[in-house]
Amino acid sequence: MRNRPLKLAACCMAGTLLTTVPAYQVLAAPSAGISEYTSTILGSELNTSSVSAGVSTAVAGYLEESLASQRSSVEATQPDSVKASSAEASKSKAKKVSKEAKKSSQKEDQTDYKNMAVAQVNDYVNIRKKPDENAKLLGKLYSNAVATVIRKQGDWYKIRSGSVTGYVKGDFVVVGDEKLIKSVGVQIAKVNTTTLKVRSKASKKSEVLTLVPGGEELEVSSMKSFDDGWVKVAVEEGDGFVSSDYVDISREYTYAESRAEEEARLAIEQARIEAEEAARRAQEAAAAGSTSTGTSSDSSSAGSSDSTSSGSASSSGQSVVNYASQFLGNPYVYGGTSLTNGADCSGFVMSVYAHFGVSLPHSSNALRGAGYGVSYSSMQPGDIICYDGHVAIYAGGNTVIHASNPADGIKYTSPANYRSVVAVRRIF
Predict the structure, then answer these.
(1) What does the pLDDT read at residue 196?
(2) What is the reported pTM?
């Protein structure tokens, strides 16, 4: 009988607590006993710092422990299959939302075009330390190269491009022209899975044109099928389609070259030219087989040195073509770099130039940034011609030499612009 007053008091206190719960929360609970929902409501109310209606902290703690025990009991009675199913459903939903968010962000271009400038000149515009034509030269912004505008100062813009920050004359750049900016950039789809299938049509049932390894960058031809889950890209076999779920879309631009970068590039080019000339002289001397003939050879080479000084780049480039021509007819192998056993287009260019001590990337897209740009009309033998998803070496006579495709292997193709030319890059 002693326990009755205590039990009654506890029940009264619990009743007092229930009266403090908002009406809509109590109505939400089932009438038959204190459900998991009511337990949650009480738990949240009892976790507040206030102790109303004379309820002590100790009693509140006691009730909270009791209700927590009930919650644990309810959760423990759920079958593992239900828990797993719920977890998988949540994970699947989160993955779907993540994909949708990714697609949305990739489709919507967030670039701040109004603060971007594009050089519109025949060759390049100088970047100077101050807004003055006599100020120190910091670098060059080549035609169609892009910069970020920091501010305008009179007839000058302070810009940042690549590693260079300085001033360019406003007459030689166009600012905020979204259409122009997009036209000078190249939209890239970077593969974010181990191996990606490139299909002939925007369908999983269509023919597989080729397989592309993870990390490879493909040039985007069109985003029209993006809403349907596909991106049209350029590969060596032609245009194809890849799933938008497995590529990251971005846009790449050409940026300024600092004086230090230009000097380093020119020094490398000069060293290659001198090494090539020294090797040629050594071959002539060895072929002569005598000192007298060797002297004659030196004399004749002195005469050719004048022509080299006026066209040394052309001479070195022709050597590249002569070397590359040795491998005509050898097989095309996707991902390959062997000039004898098989190479793809960028692997062929990379390996040919490696013979001359030049390190180039094994990527047709990355080769658009090698060396320095020249116009199509100024091409010389040895120049690298970059197409949509393909690359070749200009052989002269409106002809290129390249690792064409699995059917044809390494061959000559004419005319040089047999497909759209994206860029021409000169190494020597």
Answers:
(1) 92
(2) 0.48
List beta partners, residue 263: none
Per-residue confidence (pLDDT) for residue 129, from 0 to 100: 96
* Residue from 138, 130, 178 nearest 157 by CA: 130
Q: 174 near 182, Cβ under 8 Å?
A: no
Among 220, 252, 248, 40, CA closest to 144:
252
Mean pLDDT per 10-residue segment, the chain (428 residues): 44 44 39 39 38 43 51 44 52 54 56 91 94 95 94 96 96 95 88 92 92 83 90 84 93 90 82 71 71 42 37 74 94 89 92 93 85 88 90 94 89 90 89
Token pair for residue 153? 């100062």
Which pair of tokens denotes residue 186? Answer: 């190249």
Long-range contacts of 129-136 (CB under 8 A, 24+ apart): 129/166, 129/167, 130/167, 131/155, 131/156, 131/158, 131/167, 132/167, 133/169, 135/167
With beta carbons less than 8 A apart as the criterion, state whether 308 and 318 touch: no
Distance between CA atoms of residues 59 and 7, nearest Å:
12
- How confident is the model at residue 47, as a pLDDT? 40
Phi, psi of 302 (to 5 degrees): -65, -35
